[in-house]
Every structure is written in structure tokens, then in C-alpha cells.
Automatic annotation (TrEMBL):
Pathway: Carbohydrate degradation; glycolysis; pyruvate from D-glyceraldehyde 3-phosphate: step 3/5. Its cofactor is Mn(2+). It comes from Streptomyces dioscori. Keywords: Glycolysis, Isomerase, Manganese, Metal-binding. Residues 12-498 form the Metalloenzyme domain. InterPro entries: Alkaline_phosphatase_core_sf (IPR017850), BPG-indep_PGM_N (IPR011258), Metalloenzyme (IPR006124), PGAM_B_sf (IPR036646), Pgm_bpd_ind (IPR005995). Residues 88-292 form the BPG-independent PGAM N-terminal domain. NCBIfam families: pgm_bpd_ind. This is 2,3-bisphosphoglycerate-independent phosphoglycerate mutase. One of its GO terms (cellular component) is cytosol. Mn(2+) 1 binds at D396, H400, H459.
């Protein structure tokens, strides 16, 4: 770790505008269409640039859309970090995954005792939570080890990919199973139920009972389940295939979770394992990548080391920070930006805004932004606070609804919040760094496999705006033409008067 530098810096505010991407004006660009006079003025008047926030620049496979987890982790780490999806793919390409001792021993045990393998995960190629290609590799491994029965418990997406595509992905899953020579879909359920992360256990339990107990509406085909949904792919009702006898999890079966990202599957994983234990079923369980579950689930692929980032540098330098976000993005400015490290730090305060959630953010594009902004202003007014780090969630969370008009409004609410925060920064002698963590709202349609253009609420590969409003407004140094999210932590440290951390490969932009 780098020793703190003695250059006096200024206190500041790091504001992550979640899902704030940049793309040329177009009919589906909600960021451009929104009236955002303050963001326009700050971007025009002060040093600004575009930062890469997807693909290799942040530790993803080339061409992969950015996401909140890797976005905030790289903002904090000051270097690209090989993300879980990239590590899984490397283990597949090298053949390591198939030979993974934990996997081999589970599959061999199932083959010997005649147990079934249950594979649970999101069936799409959104590459944010999961990738059906990974499922394919697990199916091939099960076939090679002669596991007698393999059941796929399919979660439908419609959020990281265009809505209305669930049937296509379910067909693909069936084809992958046929190609591998094993596996059949047992049940289908939307991610709104199976991947709730807000503690709505009534939703989670619908998934628990489908997967563990084969309880759901009976359907003849997976496509029938997908097409019956009146609320899109995210909300496909729990459905069990009529020709899936014995898909209920039995004592002695095995279970592998194939989402690589933990945040939206961990609630279900814990709940399901507790239900199996309560019903006297011993089931050996693995996850593709490491999960933040209460239960200790052995992972097939370990996480990259993310230490030596901003949090470690701030702690070493005694820099006091306040982290603020509403529930949807709270972990992003605490756990993820700190490198998936939950160590309590005495120099950090966490403010979690808990206003009303919403099942449909179309109707409430303002979310709880006023309270988030109030908290930022309160923290900025405290002289003992060196750094305020906040996430404004609206552009991303409302963007995910795929509703263009609501997303335009979310951008406009965000602009009004930035206006208040920029004024407070000026009044408290703070610099203000604005940056997106990945694109979303600047592209609200996507071409479906059938060639039609559909509303799209998912992320993009576009770069994100990055603006530095200096504490001394006379300073007008230009930023490099292109930056990456890895440059944010070195720039923040520089503005605070500290050197770049020795583990960081990004550079201060000023
Ligand atoms: O989990 C979600 O809401 C989306 O799939 C991804 O969005 P995030 O990366 O912004 O959390
Ligand atoms: Mn995000
Ligand atoms: Mn998002």
C-alpha cells in the first residue's frame, strides 16, 4: 500500500450516475432526449471525457456489456479486475471446469448412487448474471460422468436481454441439452420471483417450491409457460413440465447453481437450502462462482483479488468517507466499491436510504432520489467528512423497465438532484466527480433475433461520461480524450491530495 502523500488536497464528492451511458443522438436515446441543463452545463464547462466501462477495459470478455458490480468494483479498485464471467469462461476454455475436482466428485457420486443433478440458473446470454453457454458446459460434464438424470430449473430473463425472448432461450436450452446428450427442463419461472434481492420471501418461496418440490402450474412445454405470462419474461409464473416426473429434489441428489453473479440468486440459494434441510433432504451443492450466501456453498471458480483499492488507500490515509445510496444500489457504494470486502472500517459511514420500493418503477421514476440528495447535502456540509460517495440509481433502475418516457423522466430527476449537489459542492469547497458505471438509458431498443426492434432495458457497451468539477473552479485542465473506470480511484485520490495506490494501474486524469 502507498504511504499517504502530504500534498494538501480538497474534500470532494464522487457521484456515480448508475446506467449513465453515452451514445450519439438517436430515437431510442433517453439520456440525449431528456432535458438535463445542469449535466449539459457541467459537461461543457468543466474537464470532461468519456470512460470505457465495458469489455476488456474493466475485466470482462471483449464486447460484453458493463454491469453495476464490475463497474463499481473497478471504480474502487483502480484497475480492471477479471470478473467472474470472464474467469468462468477461461476455466471452460482451458478445460479446467470440466475437470474441477469438486464438480467431478459430485458428478461421480451421483453416478454411483443414482442421484439426479439439478441445475438452477438464469437462461439467457445477458452476461450479467449468467450465460447459457456455461450451462452447456455443465451438461457436457454431467454426460461425460454418466450422471443418470439431469434436471434444468430454468429462470427466464427479459431484463438483461429484450423482453419477449424467453421462448427463444428455452428452445436453445433444449437444443444444448440434446447436443450434450443429457438434461431436460423440469420447470420454468421468471427472475422476478427467483431472483428477488429485496427480501420478498413470498416471491422467493414460489421458486423454492418449484425447484425443490416440483410445485407449479402444469404445462406441456417450456414455451407454453413463457408465453402464458401476462407480465413479460421476468414474471413467468412457476410452471412445472408435465413430462418431468421425479423432478422434485430427492435426498442424495446434487445441485449446481449456474448464475455466476451472486446478488440476485443468493436469497433463493439460502432459502432453498434451508427448505431442503428442514425437509430432511441432504443435497450436495456447488455454485459456479463464489456466492455471498449465509450457507457456505463451495464454488467452482474463485473470485479475483480486489484488495488494495480506494477503500484500503482511504483507510491507510485516514480519509473519512460517507457512502450513500438507496436500497437498490446500497451494496454498490459499500461492498462492491470496497472490492467485495465487508470489513467494517472506522473511517467509513454508510447511509442506506429506505424509502418505498416499487414493483414497477415506471410509475415512480423519481424513486427516493430526494432523500438520497438530502443525505448527500448533509454529509457535504460536515467539515470532518473528506469524501462523499453516492450512487444515484434512477437512470439505471428506471432504464431497466424498458420504458422510454419514464427513463427520460428519470434522467431529468437526476439532473435536478445533480443541480442541488453541485451547488452544495461549491458552497462547501468540494470538487465533484460525476461518472456512469455502465451504459443503459442511452439505448432503449434492441433488435430481436426475428429482426424486429424491441424495447430494451438492459445495459450497453457504450462508454460513460466522466466530469470533474474542480474545487477551484478556475482550474480548467483538460482530461485525456479517453479514460476508463480504472482511472476514477487514482483521480479521486489525486484530488484529495494522495498518490495513486500501488495496486492500481489506472492514472489520475488531472
Ligand atoms: O440485476 C439487475 O437489476 C440487472 O440484471 C443488472 O443491473 P445492475 O448490474 O445495474 O445491478
Ligand atoms: Mn449500475
Ligand atoms: Mn442495471
Amino acid at each position: 500500500m502507498t504511504a499517504p502523500d502530504t500534498t494538501p488536497g480538497d474534500p470532494g464528492i464522487l457521484l456515480v450516475l448508475d446506467g449513465w451511458g453515452h451514445a450519439p443522438p438517436a430515437a431510442d436515446n433517453a439520456v440525449d432526449a431528456a432535458s438535463t441543463p445542469v449535466l449539459d452545463e457541467l459537461t461543457g464547462r468543466y474537464p470532461s471525457t468519456l470512460a470505457y466501462a465495458s469489455g476488456e477495459a474493466v475485466g470482462l470478455l471483449p464486447g460484453t456489456v458493463g454491469n453495476s458490480e464490475i463497474g463499481h468494483m473497478v471504480i474502487g479498485a483502480g484497475r480492471p479486475l477479471p470478473y467472474d464471467s470472464l474467469l468462468v469462461q477461461q476455466h471452460i476454455d482451458s478445460g479446467e471446469l470440466r475437470e474441477n475436482p469438486r464438480l467431478v466428485s459430485l458428478l461421480d457420486a451421483l453416478a454411483v448412487r443414482g442421484g439426479a443433478l439439478h441445475l438452477v440458473g438464469l437462461c439467457s446470454d445477458g452476461q450479467i448474471h449468467a450465460n447459457v453457454g456455461h450451462l452447456s458446459e455443465l451438461l457436457a460434464a454431467a454426460a461425460a460422468r454418466r450422471v443418470p438424470r439431469v434436471w434444468i430449473h430454468a429462470i427466464t430473463d427479459g431484463r438483461d436481454v429484450a423482453d419477449g425472448t424467453a421462448e427463444t432461450y428455452l428452445t436453445q436450452v433444449t437444443e444444448l441439452a440434446a447436443a450434450a446428450g443429457t438434461g431436460a427442463i423440469a420447470g420454468v419461472i421468471g427472475r422476478g420471483y427467483a431472483m428477488d434481492k429485496a427480501g420478498n420471501l413470498d416471491l422467493t418461496d414460489r421458486a423454492v417450491h418449484l425447484v425443490a418440490d416440483a410445485e407449479g402450474t402444469e404445462v406441456n412445454t417450456a414455451a407454453e409457460a413463457a408465453n402464458a405470462s401476462e407480465r413479460g419474461d421476468e414474471w413467468v409464473d412457476p410452471s412445472i413440465l408435465r413430462d418431468a416426473p421425479g423432478a422434485r429434489i430427492a435426498d442424495g441428489d446434487g445441485l449446481v447453481w449456474f448464475n455466476f453473479r451472486s446478488d440476485r440468486i443468493q436469497q433463493l440459494a439460502d432459502r432453498l437450502l434451508e427448505h431442503l434441510a428442514a425437509t430432511a433432504r441432504t443435497v450436495d451443492t456447488l455454485s459456479l462462482a463464489q456466492y455471498d450466501t449465509r450457507a457456505d456453498i463451495p464454488a467452482l471458480v474463485q473470485r479475483a483479488d480486489a484488495s488494495g483499492g480506494l477503500a484500503d488507500e482511504l483507510t491507510a490515509a485516514g480519509v473519512r468517507s460517507v457512502r450513500i445510496a438507496e436500497a437498490e444500489k446500497f451494496e454498490h457504494v459499500t461492498y462492491y466499491i470496497n472490492g467485495r470486502d465487508s470489513t467494517a472500517r472506522s473511517v467509513e459511514e454508510h447511509v442506506r436510504i429506505t424509502g418505498p420500493g416499487a414493483s414497477d418503477y415506471k410509475a415512480r421514476p423519481e424513486m427516493n432520489l430526494d432523500q438520497v440528495t438530502d443525505a448527500v447535502l448533509d454529509a457535504a456540509a460536515r467539515p470532518e467528512v473528506d469524501l462523499v460517495i453516492a450512487n444515484l440509481a434512477n437512470i439505471d433502475v428506471v432504464g431497466h423497465t424498458g420504458d422510454y418516457a419514464a427513463t427520460v423522466k428519470a434522467c431529468e430527476h437526476t439532473d435536478a438532484a445533480v443541480a442541488r449537489i453541485a451547488t452544495a459542492a461549491a458552497e462547501s469547497g468540494r470538487w465533484l466527480l460525476l461518472v456512469g458505471d455502465h451504459g443503459n438509458a442511452e439505448k432503449m431498443t434492441k433488435q430481436a433475433p426475428d429482426g424486429t426492434s424491441r424495447p430494451y432495458g438492459g445495459h450497453t457497451t457504450h462508454p460513460v461520461p466522466l466530469v470533474v468539477v474542480p474545487a477551484n473552479k478556475e482550474a480548467t485542465a483538460a482530461l485525456p480524450q479517453r479514460a476508463t473506470l480504472a482511472d476514477v480511484a487514482p483521480t479521486v485520490l489525486h484530488l484529495l491530495g494522495h498518490k495513486t495506490g500501488s495496486a492500481m494501474t489506472g492514472r489520475p486524469l488531472l
